[in-house]
Specification:
single chain, alpha+beta, 2,3-Dihydroxybiphenyl 1,2-Dioxygenase, domain 1, 6-stranded mixed sheet, 10 strands, globular, Glyas_Fos-R_dOase_dom, Glyas_Bleomycin-R_OHBP_Dase, VOC family protein, VOC_core
Length: 126
């Protein structure tokens, strides 16, 4: 049953207005579908979407929560930096970034935090 259904990522936000500003003005996403003052749905490529919802638990996860596939990660990282996005630098077994981008056997990746402390990423397949 589920294999035929659309998937929607879900991201927590302590401050939904601040998150709306980040996703719209910093990342450049189209205005969201506003379900109510505590729930926003953003659309992205190929019919994908994600929900931003109000909760005090935002920013508590220590793992990547959502990502976008990229065909030009260096260009996308540069463009997002121009918009004020700060990319994380990591150095641990299996992942070491250089100028914000890690090269792995399966591709390249870059991570950044949204306004709520959620870990997001870009990924370009090898």
């Amino acid at each position: 049953m589920l294999k035929e259904q659309d998937i929607m990522a879900v991201l927590p936000a302590r401050d939904v207005a601040r998150a709306r500003d980040f996703y719209g003005n910093v990342l450049g996403l189209d205005p969201p579908l506003v379900m109510d003052e505590e729930n926003l749905i953003y659309r992205s490529g190929n019919g994908t979407s994600f929900l931003v919802y109000k909760t005090d638990n935002a920013g508590s996860a220590k793992n990547t929560q959502m990502g976008w596939e990229s065909s030009d990660i260096e260009g996308d990282v540069a463009a997002l930096r121009e918009r004020g996005v700060v990319f994380e630098e990591y150095d641990f077994p299996g992942v070491e970034t250089s100028d914000g981008i890690a090269s792995t056997p399966v591709g390249k990746a870059a991570w950044f935090l949204d306004s709520e402390g959620n870990i997001l990423n870009l990924f370009q397949r090898a």
